[in-house]
Amino acid sequence: MEDLTFEQAMKRLEEIVSWLEAGDVPLDQSMTLFEEGTKLSAYLSKLLDTAEQKVTMITGQNGTESEVPFDTEEGE
Description:
By secondary structure, the chain is of the alpha+beta class. Helix content is 59%, strand content 16%. It has helices at residues 6-22, 27-54; strands at residues 56-61, 64-69. The chain has a two-stranded antiparallel ribbon. The radius of gyration is 19 Å and the shape is elongated.
């Protein structure tokens, strides 16, 4: 799963959700798909957490640029 891009993992998760919502999949296959979907969800969450940590704001302080962590609470 580590070799999937965010977009690929999201597309696969959407496919799994569609199949499970349709209800046409046998129970044993549904369980397998559910497990895969759970793993994909955790993987996507990890990717988003990593991306959030990398987001920075460039601010001008005393005429110089510096990176500061992105404050997710700002503006709420």
